[in-house]
Amino acid sequence: MANGSGAHPLRVLVAGGGIAGHALAFWLTRGGHRVTVVERFPALRATGAQVDLRGQGIEAVERMGLLDAVRGKLVDEAGVAFVDARGRAKATIMANTSGRGRQTLTSEYEIMRGDLVRILHDASKDDTEYVFGVSVDGFEQDEQKVIAHFSDGSSGEFDLLVGADGQGSRIRQAILPAGCDPYWRVGIHMAYWFIPRIASDSNIRDTYMVPGGRQIMRRSHNPTETQVYFVMREESEEASASHRKPVERQQKFWVSRFRDAGWQTERFIDGMQTSPFFYSQEIVQVRTDNWSKGRVVLAGDAAHCASPYSGMGISGGLVGAYVLAGEINRHPGDLPTALANYDSVLRPFVDEIQGEVNPRLLRLGMPMTQRAIDAFQAATALACFLHVPDLAARFSKEDRGGSWQLPENPAPIIAV
């Protein structure tokens, strides 16, 4: 492919083969650029828990021509039930499948992260160089180029380096001022893993509240597997440090916090030991004043992680990649302008989706006492009886991304 603007195609290195990295490769190669994606895992990292698409994220996938492929891999999750210690549903909020308004707690487009990665990879692999088992260990840059140093001892010269290496981005750390803390914390921690599915695991996501600001969620994504989530409110150094410890110690920490929780906790903890993977994290947002420095730019969670509670984490990564690629494709010979436009165009959208996360509201959904749990469930049950969640979703004029509109196509000019 050739860039139709007459500018020389850029050599772009993307550090990170996740959602944002794949979406960038898709759009940049269609703009005529030569893209290399390096991923530190030894193979395509098509793993992870259930994610969703909402608002502008759905539109971004549709513009890629991949919405039908996504529909073919959707998880059957009809809604969310709040259950008691016996597993009885006290209130259930169903997904909004009307095709209009706002998504509810369950999106109309629920998909496993691994399936979405595979769809994006299949759509971009023929035009992109993917290198697995390698990471960017360092780089230096001047006005003409970026020289990246890789974990295998090799180096490469590029016109642009994109840090799409996630919430804990090493590229971001290298370009931010010393001592800058990019994390906005909400005092919540989460762990999730997979266990075998049993007959009582339905297509409704179960949410069980436990005194002490704790919550357990169960959702099933295929006929044989169920996802388990432990979530808790805690602002302690021990909790924050636990995620950096070996997996065995992470698991021990979570067991210590939930051993007495009741419901199906014993089953979930037993399944933790044989799960194919286990992931533990502190819920944070990434907030920085700048997303680029010279010929290095951040994308996806590395730039603007909105957290799972925004409901727009995956959509934000797809939209951010769309905007960044669009500005590069429109200004391939003027990277300073492209990167400045990326910031000014995308920043209002990021502010909108990050602003959806309100720690006070989150705490209301994670009560400390059984009395508060009972009150929450009673209020939710009444709202459901009156069809408030359904009506509010259907008649809402905007989804979580607000009224912000996607710019024109990121690859408007191309010759094949």
UniProtKB/TrEMBL annotation:
Keyword terms: Monooxygenase, Oxidoreductase
Gene3D superfamilies, A to Z: D-Amino Acid Oxidase, subunit A, domain 2 (3.30.9.10), FAD/NAD(P)-binding domain (3.50.50.60)
Keyword Glycoprotein found: no
Pfam families for the chain: FAD_binding_3
Domain FAD-binding: 11-325
Entry-linked InterPro entries: FAD-bd, FAD/NAD-bd_sf, FAD_aromatic-hydroxylase
Sample GO molecular function, one term: monooxygenase activity
Protein name as catalogued: FAD-dependent monooxygenase
Organism: Nonomuraea roseola
Higher taxonomy: Bacteria, Bacillati, Actinomycetota, Actinomycetes, Streptosporangiales
